[in-house]
Design brief:
Oligomer: single chain
CATH class: Mainly Beta
Distance between the termini: 55 Å
Shape: globular
Number of helices: 9
Order of helices and strands: HHEHEEEEEHEEEEEEEEEEHHHHH
Structural class: alpha+beta
Radius of gyration: 23 Å
Helix content: 25-40%
Number of domains: 1
Largest sheet: 14 strands, antiparallel
Strand content: 25-35%
Length: 379
């Protein structure tokens, strides 16, 4: 069915090879290629680390490297569930975050196993279109079904077909889109996405560039690997199973030519399930009944073990609180003296602090300011 829709549309654009495709035609092509995929679930894992050309020492690179493992569930009406476990080298950098997006509402809960770093939050708020796009452990830099589901009429996000280019040996339509339907307040320029989409393999992007302040490239997703899978009903679809996302932005207005940070993505092949018709309860944080699936997350067991083996929660009686406060003040005074004695320590503290916060959003690139300055000094 898909081929009968796509071939006539592409035939209209043949001018000594593929021509340019207007927004309505392109939208119909993408929707036709995605229509057989009603829902899917997967486990994805990878790392987040400093870029391969960073001038940081090996010890510093190892210190800031994080690994993650996530359970991701998506339904074609936009309902989404994401559970992320990510950690660095120490217990207090181990975190678990769960997200549930359903209708116009989102739920989020975050926790760590170390009682010395209390962080247990639960939040319900209005849903944002790009809420999971830059979250650590989210596969939405690799999978874009959610994006084309939200923006079915590409005319409203500034669609422009720029031509055709070969990516990894495959002819792809290069298109430009606005990241938001309207520019955020105070922004003089509109952030853009450049996508190279393989229309012959289920309309998956093989490269995506985020232009936070065009024409500067803030991040680039590349090396996206597709694999063909059978769907129930003897149909098939091409689906992304691996990829890399590089970040180039130190801060707004400061971009580098070499990647400062790198995220890797790898879908656990045995975890993929298509068109299982998950109920609405599978997209809620309140008793979603997916223990069998979640038990396959290796890092979940690590998190549970760390929680079980961590020290008991701090006592809350007045004497214990005062003793703990006095100890924290002594530690703060000691840290202050160390910071005054060494600017390198001060800079490293800033990076480590951001690392523990989880690398979410555009602020991910602020992590590597110190290393970007080193790279700049060497040029």
């Amino acid at each position: 069915m898909v081929l009968f829709v796509i071939i006539p549309l592409l035939a209209l654009t043949q001018v000594d090879g593929p021509g340019l495709i207007e927004a309505p035609q392109f939208s119909r092509i993408v929707q036709a290629q995605h229509e057989d995929l009603r829902d899917y679930e997967l486990i994805i894992e990878g790392t987040l680390e400093l870029g391969p050309t960073s001038r940081a020492t090996r010890e510093e690179k190892d210190s800031y490297k994080r690994r993650y493992q996530s359970l991701y569930r998506y339904r074609s009406d936009g309902a989404t569930f994401l559970e992320v476990y990510n950690r660095g080298a120490s217990l207090d950098s181990f975190g678990r975050t769960r997200y549930a997006l359903f209708g116009d509402k989102s739920e989020e809960v975050e926790s760590v196993p170390d009682p010395k770093v209390p962080r247990l939050t639960f939040e319900t708020k209005p849903r944002s279109p790009l809420q999971l796009f830059s979250q650590t452990g989210s596969p939405q830099r690799l999978l874009y079904h959610w994006y084309f589901e939200q923006f079915k009429d590409l005319r409203f996000i500034g669609y422009e077909h720029l031509g055709w280019e070969l990516i990894d040996g495959h002819n792809c339509a290069k298109i430009k889109l606005f990241l938001f339907t309207t520019p955020p307040a105070g922004n003089k320029t509109r952030s853009q996405l450049l996508m190279w989409i393989d229309l012959e393999r289920s309309a998956n992007p093989l490269r995506v560039e985020l232009l936070f302040e065009p024409p500067a490239v803030a991040s680039r997703s590349h090396s996206i690997e597709l694999r063909s899978f059978k769907l129930p009903g003897n149909k098939s679809i091409w689906f992304p199973i691996a990829g890399i996302d590089d970040g180039f932005m130190v801060k707004p207005g400061d971009y580098r030519e070499e990647p400062l940070v790198r995220s890797t993505y790898h879908v656990v092949n045995s975890s993929l399930q298509f068109n299982q018709s998950p109920p609405d309860s599978a997209f809620s944080l309140k008793g979603n009944g997916d223990e069998a699936r979640r038990s396959k997350l290796v890092m979940r067991k690590e998190f549970d073990d760390a929680t079980a083996n961590s020290p008991p929660p701090a006592r809350t009686d007045r004497k214990s609180v005062q003793e703990r406060l006095d100890q924290q003040l002594r530690e703060a005074d000691s840290q202050a003296r160390m910071i005054e004695a060494s600017s390198a320590v001060r800079e490293s503290w800033g990076v480590a602090t951001w690392a523990q916060l989880g690398f979410g959003g555009i602020a991910i690139f602020l992590l590597v300011g110190i290393f970007a300055r080193r790279s700049g000094a060497g040029r």
